[in-house]
Design brief:
heterodimer; A: about 250 residues; alpha/beta; 5-stranded parallel sheet; 9 helices; elongated; B: about 500 residues; 5-stranded mixed sheet
């Protein structure tokens, strides 16, 4: 375990950074709000819930939040109204809109009101986490020329991959898939995310789910089969994760 | 909300407006007529006076002592419409009164003579007698026995004014009955003209969501109201169509949603019956999440269908090669075929360009291809050809070597939510929408889709779509027709 000390340092740093991250969840559906809160907390974020726009207003007045998850359809008051008010008052933190309204016009309306991203219900939790990470990501995340994780090495310039020095023969799609999994290492990646970010399809459909499953199985054969410690795991009902279990 | 049409108000307003306008025009007419009548009378009076004065001239004589007298046996009347009091006096050029007729008595016609009064003209004028009576006066210079005198003849004005007043009074008395009659006639005519409207309103009030099949009465398609009723009927027809679709959609949707919901429910209930290991719980939760995923995709499909049904999906046409589209689709899913050791052979005519919504067409081809892979046994071949067909159509034929489709099912497989007898698609989690979406895609572009038995075995799906040379200028039409295409989605 050559990499162990270095990695745990990184993890500690990441954890410290995460702990500073305060997330406000504005969602009137209490079950959903609680589930998101628990999910975010288990990822190391600090989260608070508000079940109404008034409550959100009060909480925002009291403390600083790094990110707001905002449901658009709130009782009594519209989430977009709250968002416009926040923006007009100079609140600059990123806002991720959660909504069941999925037409293009609704999206445009939401983004125009000052939203930074838009997630349609029902969403996959890994997707939510990925968006949250993206919104909280520091600008200093410069484009990397290579990725390194648990003995896997990806050279993004030459598009070659190796594990523990042994070259892996990957197709273009497999390379893209592995790159995406490496970027999200340690986090579950849902099929929706793969559909959008690796296959670049606009909507998810059953055929593509099957294609993704087969593609992941093939990639797993290539990167895991010759080695004793598997890296690529299927999380049933959710998606896939690239993770070295210690 | 009930649409309340106040039948009386339009009719009353029309009548009121018409009556007022008619009354005003009538008054204008009366005023002009009265004035013209007065002018004519006055002209006649002066005409009469001129005739009269010539008669009088013949009756005047001078006595030896220089007095002027008249033979008063003068009853000659000019042709006049009415009896007017006639006054007459004779003056010398100095303005001295030489003679006055009896009727005039001591009163005088006008005072001093006018400059050159009666020479060359008759000086027709309205004047006042010294006793205040208003008269029409003319003057004329006349020579009697070498002596120049001025004759003044005056006709009383009052009878003329009375006559004109009478005339005006009669016209004014006639106006109210005329206005009344006109108003009544208008009231009746608008009433009968608007009566179909009342019938329409009564019928329209009866039409509810449950009785959308009712139609408004159309007496005459070419009358204004007939056109209104026909337009409303067309609107009702479209409403009824949408409503029927909505009802069917709701029924389908609730049916389709029930299945995954009930399996979710049983999984939860069964799991909670006893304590299980953490691993078991994870398995079951994962399985429930899979079901939730299925449910989510089903809702997405249902939304797509409902949008297609209501014509909300607007095609975004672009030009592209049909062969490229097929190649792209094949390369996306061929990994699935590889897993079953199936081979996909494509034979594509490279020059076939269509103008169509690429995303929708791609989805259709993808669904067909996915079906072919799914229902073909391992180690078989799937053949795809892209070629030109008759009638300016591009044709995609997909042949598999699967079990084939029973003849009685061939017409049904394109219906939404249809699953073949073996329920084979439930195994794969399909909602039975793939082929119906493919059919909708074909029809939305003015193409067709059909299935026939394959050459040796299996099925052959034939998908056609108009080529660009034919479809240019037609695409707008077909996107309009989309709502009706969607009916059968």
């Amino acid at each position: 375990m050559r990499h162990a000390p270095r990695k745990s340092m990184l993890q500690l740093q990441a954890l410290a950074a995460l702990q500073a991250m305060q997330i406000l969840i504005v969602e009137d559906e209490r079950k959903l709000a609680e589930a998101i809160k628990q999910g975010l907390e288990s990822e190391g974020y600090s989260a608070q819930t508000a079940f109404s726009a008034q409550e959100a207003n009060r909480l925002l007045g009291n403390g600083a939040f790094n990110l707001v998850l905002l449901d658009i359809m709130l009782p009594e008051s519209n989430g977009l109204a709250l968002l416009r008010k926040l923006r007009s008052e100079g609140f600059k933190m990123p806002v991720l809109l959660l909504t069941a309204l999925d037409t293009i016009e609704d999206r445009v309306l939401g983004l125009d009101a000052g939203g930074d991203d838009y997630l349609i219900k029902p969403f996959a939790f890994p997707e939510l986490l990925a968006r949250v990470r993206a919104l909280l990501r520091r600008v200093d995340a410069a484009p990397q020329s290579s990725l390194e994780y648990a003995g896997l090495h990806l050279d993004l310039a030459t598009r070659t991959a190796s594990r523990k020095g042994a070259a892996l023969d990957l197709t273009a799609r497999e390379f893209d898939l592995l790159e995406y999994l490496m970027l999200n290492r340690g986090h579950v990646v849902s099929r929706e995310m793969l559909t959008r970010d690796v296959w670049r399809e606009t909507s998810r459909y059953t055929t593509l789910d099957n294609v993704i499953d087969v593609q992941v199985a093939r990639l797993r054969r290539k990167i895991d089969q010759p080695f004793s410690a598997p890296l690529l795991h299927t999380v049933r009902g959710i998606g896939f994760i690239l993770k070295a279990w210690e | 909300m009930r649409f309340k049409f106040r039948a009386g108000s339009l009719r009353r307003r029309l009548t009121l407006w018409y009556g007022t306008l008619f009354g005003l025009l009538l008054l204008l007419h009366v005023a002009v007529a009265t004035y013209v009548h007065y002018r004519q009378l006055v002209a006649q009076v002066f005409q009469g006076e001129i005739q009269d004065i010539e008669t009088v001239e013949g009756l005047l004589y001078q006595t030896p002592d220089g007095r002027i007298l008249m033979h008063e046996d003068y009853f000659n009347q000019p042709r006049m419409p009415m009896q007017l009091g006639r006054f007459f006096e004779v003056l010398d050029t100095g303005g001295q009164v030489l003679f006055r007729n009896q009727k005039l008595g001591t009163a005088s016609i006008g005072g001093f003579s006018l400059p050159r009064e009666g020479f060359g003209s008759y000086n027709e004028r309205v004047d006042t007698l010294s006793d205040g009576r208003s008269v029409y006066v003319i003057s004329h210079a006349h020579r009697i026995d070498g002596r120049t005198v001025i004759l003044r003849l005056a006709y009383e004005r009052a009878p003329v004014l009375r006559n004109v007043g009478q005339f005006l009074k009669i016209l004014l008395l006639l106006a109210p009955p005329a206005i009344l009659i006109a108003a009544v006639v208008v009231f009746q005519i608008t009433g009968s003209a608007l009566s179909p409207l009342r019938a329409i309103v009564r019928r329209a009030e009866r039409i509810t969501a449950e009785r959308l099949n009712e139609r408004l009465p159309v007496d005459d398609r070419h009358s204004d109201l007939g056109q209104v009723a026909a337009a409303f009927n067309e609107l009702l027809r479209r409403l009824e169509e949408s409503f029927t679709q909505l009802k069917r959609f709701t029924a389908d949707a609730s049916h389709e949603l029930r299945t995954p919901l009930s399996s979710l429910r049983s999984m939860g209930e069964v799991t909670l019956q006893k304590d299980r290991s953490g691993r078991e719980y994870r398995e079951i939760l994962g399985s429930m999440l899979e079901e939730v995923n299925r449910l989510t995709q089903l809702v997405d499909s249902l939304l797509l269908i409902s949008r297609a049904d209501s014509g909300q999906i607007v095609l975004k046409p672009s030009d592209f090669s049909l062969g490229d589209l097929v190649q792209e689709t094949v390369s996306l899913v061929e990994i699935l075929a590889e897993e079953k050791q199936q081979t996909i052979r494509v034979q594509a005519d490279a020059d076939l360009v269509v103008r169509a919504d690429r995303t929708i067409l791609r989805q259709a081809v993808l669904n067909l291809l996915d079906n072919a892979i799914k229902y073909s046994p391992p180690r078989t071949e799937i053949r795809i050809s892209v070629e030109r067909a008759d009638g300016g159509l591009g044709q995609i034929a997909i042949s598999d070597q699967g079990a084939g489709i029973a003849p009685e099912e061939r017409a049904l497989i394109f219906n939404r939510f249809y699953r073949t007898g073996e329920g084979r698609s439930t195994v794969d989690g399909g909602a039975g929408l793939g082929l119906s979406i493919a059919r909708w895609a074909a029809e939305a572009h003015g193409g067709t889709i059909e299935v026939s038995p394959g050459a040796d075995q299996g099925s052959r799906f034939l998908f056609t779509v108009p080529l660009r040379e034919r479809s240019v200028g037609k695409i707008a039409e077909s996107s309009d027709a989309c709502a009706s295409c969607g009916v059968d989605l």
